[in-house]
Design brief:
The structure holds two protein chains of two kinds. Chain A is an alpha/beta fold. Chain A has nine helices and eight strands. Chain B has a four-stranded antiparallel sheet with strand order 2-3-1-4, with helices on one face. The model of chain B has no long low-confidence stretch (mean pLDDT 91). The longest helix of chain B is centred in the C-terminal third of the chain and has 16 residues. By secondary structure, chain B is α+β, with helices and mostly antiparallel strands. The chains are: A alpha/beta, B alpha+beta. The interface between A and B is medium-sized, with 25 and 26 residues.
Chain lengths: 311, 93
């Protein structure tokens, strides 16, 4: 059971405020390791917070970006992320693997990449996926923030219809939530790994989504993804399919990990977390911790490889 | 708050390119207000679609007439939502 100073229940789904409050608690509980950093704001002006885990101040060290909740209805991803935040903090100096990662690198974790969408799923429409930006001339709101990155923007697997679930937005980075992450990562300049957590259907994917062309590092990424999927499966047998996004699920342009990869972040992965479809996006809360626990082993395998293969 | 009374989730199995294109035709039809949870892509990947109660009949007819195999994986989405809401209320308490 994870230590918690305020009885935050990691086995339950929470409001945005509760998640932000818990991020604050983690930063207070581990002041020498964790801090809550505001990286921007959403369309409806909600703050966007990341937890920064760092054992050394000063020049930006090589870093890992963990992204969750970009599709707001995929609640298991936000829940897994906040569990993971507490896990990173509490395992530092207890687990040699995470300790050695943090002695060499920083970890940035964004549990709610689409705050407006998340609030909307709790107040208006549980199955909402996109942002909540206005589309002039259209009655439909929002763009798909995972089609809005500057990676073959508006190409295959995205729609130019604002009413579509995969609407790419008027231009790359039009969604302030996406731009906030892009600006932060570019300003930092030393990210080596970018992992985006989604649900559902048990997949571990790497670039590209916008083309069936093989990525230059496809072989290494494939091997690593397979090792991570194996580690993940060791907890309770959850089997992941592994492969490039385009040929494993479908062509998808403008995605986060393609942008990351094309901008020099070699270790770029998307995970589709546990959920066989029986529950759709309503994975019962009693599966949050089992999902987070198995995902953790996959993430750790990737992060250890990054630590040992800095470039 | 949007309600989903009687809305169902269909899992549709696609066996070839022809079936994928038939299904794409269905999911791209704006008047049925379908919400695609897993898109038609490769053959060995089932497609999950949220079908609003008002569209159940036309969607079922389309699938049957085109010989597309499907099963209903969520019988009533609102029941799941109500359970989730109840669980969240309990946790808040």
């Amino acid at each position: 059971q994870e230590r918690s100073s305020n009885n935050f229940n990691y086995g339950a789904y929470h409001s945005l405020e509760a998640i932000y409050h818990e991020m604050d608690n983690i930063a207070s509980d581990f002041p020498d390791l964790a801090s809550r950093v505001k990286i921007g704001h959403s369309f409806e002006n909600r703050p966007m917070y990341v937890l920064k885990f760092s054992t050394e101040e000063g020049v930006p060290r090589p870093a890992i970006w963990l992204n969750a909740g970009i599709h707001s209805r995929e609640w298991i991803s936000q829940a897994t992320a906040i569990w993971t935040a507490r896990k990173i903090a509490s395992d530092y100096q207890r687990d040699p693997a995470i300790t050695s990662i943090l002695e060499k690198m920083d970890i940035f974790l964004l549990p709610v990449a689409n705050p407006d969408g998340y609030v909307y799923t709790q107040t208006q429409n549980r199955l909402w996926r996109k942002t909540r930006s206005l589309n002039p001339g259209s009655p439909c709101f929002g763009a798909d923030p995972n089609r809005n990155w500057n990676a073959s923007f508006a190409g295959k697997g995205a729609s130019d219809d604002p009413c579509s679930e995969v609407y790419h937005g008027p231009h790359a980075n039009s969604e302030v939530e996406v731009k906030s992450v892009v600006d932060f990562i570019q300003k930092h300049g030393n990210f080596k790994c970018f992992i985006d957590l989604h649900s559902y259907s048990q997949l571990m994917m790497y670039p590209y989504g916008y083309t069936a062309k093989k990525a230059p590092d496809a072989e290494e990424l494939d091997k690593l993804a397979r090792r991570a999927a194996k580690a993940l499966a060791s907890v309770s047998g959850t089997e992941y399919q592994v492969g490039p996004t385009c040929t494993t699920v479908y062509p998808a342009s403008g995605s986060s990990i393609d942008w990351a990869y094309d901008n020099g972040i070699k270790f770029a992965f998307t995970l589709e977390l546990r959920d066989t479809g029986t529950y759709g996006f309503l994975l019962p809360a009693n599966q949050i911790i089992p999902t987070a626990e198995e995902t953790w082993l996959g993430l750790k395998t990737i992060m250890e490889h990054v630590r040992d293969n800095l470039y | 708050r949007e309600k989903f009374f009687g809305d169902q989730v269909f899992r549709i199995n696609v066996r070839n390119g022809d079936e994928i294109s038939k299904l794409s035709q269905l999911v791209n039809s704006n008047n049925l207000k379908l919400n695609v949870w897993k898109s038609p892509s490769t053959f060995n990947r089932p497609v999950d679609v949220l079908v609003p109660s008002v569209s159940l009949q036309p969607v079922k007819s389309f699938l049957t007439s085109q010989g597309l195999e499907y099963e209903v994986t969520i019988e009533d989405l609102q029941t799941l939502l109500d359970n989730e809401d109840e669980e969240m209320r309990q946790n808040e308490g």
